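[#protein-structures] MJ: dropping Alpha/beta hydrolase here for a structure pass
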Amino acid sequence: MRLTEATPPPEAEAADDAPGGDAWQPRARRAGTAPADGAYDIALVVVHGMGAAYKSQILLEWAEPLLARMDWMARDRIYGAVDSDGVRLETSDLAGDAPIVGATVTFPKRRATTPDGDPIGPVERITKRIAIVEARWSDSFVPLSRSQIFRWAAPFMWRAVRRMLRLFWATLVMLPWYTLVEHALTPRRGLALLLKALTFLFDLVRVVVGFAVYLPLSAFVLAVAVVLTPVLPLVSPLLLIPALKKAAESVIDGIAESIGDVTAWKETPVRANAMRLVVRQAIERAKALVGDGDVHVFAHSQGAAVSTFTLFEEMDPNAYNVRQLTTVGAAVTLLGRDKWRGRSDVYKPVQNWITARKDQDRPVQWANHWAIWDPFSSGPIADDPRKARERWRASYFPRRTTGALGPEEHAVHNVSQPIFDHTYYYLNTLQVVEPTIRNLLGPDFPGPPPEVAYLENRLNVINKKSLGTNLLASVVIAALLPGITAVSAFFATVLVWLASPFALIGDLLNGAEPAPDATAGIGFLQADGMLTGWGWLVAGGLVAALLIWVNQVITGYVERTLLWDRCPLPVGWWLGLTSIPRLVYVTGAAVVVWFSVTQWWQIADPWRWWLGAAFVVVTLFCWLEARFAPAPVVVPARTAQEEVKRIVADAERPLSLSIARRSTAYSRTLGRRQELLVPEGWWAEAWARAFHGWPEKQAQAKATAGAS
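AK: finished. structure tokens for Alpha/beta hydrolase:
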């Protein structure tokens, strides 16, 4: 619905009891009544992943970040927004039988631009009504017994481990190798380091370091799998031992609760159908809420497998106005479909999706988001592993796109940690939340030029990679620092110093009795002025906790300034300032490793120089890697060979950090944001003066506007 001013939509009516009658409530929600059919323009169905989900849990998990970011984007003045734009909540029914969050969003319509980037024509406003509902299938079936779950879990675990190792191999080894090959074929002017030889050396070090990290990581994963293989089938019998049951029952029940859903989906078709029924009913409810409007489905993990099968094998998406399927951390290829015993059904989700699109005026679109360290999605969606590998490479280098068809691919960076990447998609504002909002609100929703969008994504990736680099450096420092002789003596002295006040208190309370020996009381932590093994472990844990906490605080602050400031730092300043914490962490790790090595081994002078040079090279690489590492790009959906050819043609001149920084689109966008900057508080004013030319640019903009 288009409005020339930011006014309430025509169907809104003044509330009878509102002062002056100027407050309004949409007819979608009045006096506690349920939303009427056709009350909304768009409905989003969110589907949770494996594990128990409480009522409204998945609804809140996604509704809050989506609506918060939607309000921020809709009120962006650079596109002509005014104070009355943004999100207005209509209802948040979280405790009813059918939880729903309803909202109205008003935003300036995207305008065409001149070749110079100036918008054409007056600002129009659009208002859309959005309903968000949940499909909570975790209570739709009777859970399996522990013995059923854990008997099935051991062989399934090895399939998941193989996929995990393939993903780690691709991320740590194959991506650096592909980058080396890609840079070898790139003209010198397109290289970030400018010199071919220097670029080759940097890429070669990346391959070596990635392989060196992959070896212990894969060995650890395999060791855990080997240990769990005989343990999992014995879990239920072991719980017959009272002492073990008391100690481990809650943990085992938690594990069974999560993987039990997967077992039910794969092994019991009746229970699997009960899960799909919940998704079908939620889609039917969403269709009733929007009438002729659009329905979007958003599914995570196992919910993606359930939703994909439901939409493309059991329903006609077009009949329910399903226009968009968004999957995050999708376990579609890991879980596949339910299987009747004795059947060998071949499941091809991509082909099913392409078939469902055939001869449709508005076919359902599919966007798939996968985190680079998420072992459950393990990369792009394809009908066989070979095509998945091809699509994975194309997510970084679209020019290498092959005939492997599939949905729109978004390789994303969540928290740069294996396993945890699977659970934090809702915190990925730029790469997951924003694209979902743009899909919901359609092409009329304004957005940045391609060069600016590229820069935002690239800087976000650098920040997330810095998080991972600093995390590894923190672990190295914490593991080795207490073992250095001087540091160990210092920590032991601090322990004695901290224990002294307690000894003084004990002396006062003991009266005539001898005071307790404070040093002996902490003897398990220090002895003879040095840390013991337990002391080393405790000190290392405290150091790790401190360093990781500081790292997360810094990364969170940088992310907020990048994503939530109306006028972020210029790219050059951002790259320089944000590299300082990374330099401190990697240098600290290098120093600690150097002192540890020279303390434990006697190294002759000639080799000491070579070893020192190697340390310098690796330290510089770890510091610069996040800056020069390849960043994933969004690859459009491929449903026919003609689309593959178009993607390859469009990617022949890829953007880079240097090209995007020098673009007119970026300089104009930054200049416009600087003109609109309104700092609040002394710190914001100091920041604006130092980096954005405030208030001179505001005065210049007013003078130009007055003259025109």
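MJ: nice. The longest helix spans residues 146-184.
AK: one more thing. The longest strand covers residues 125-135.
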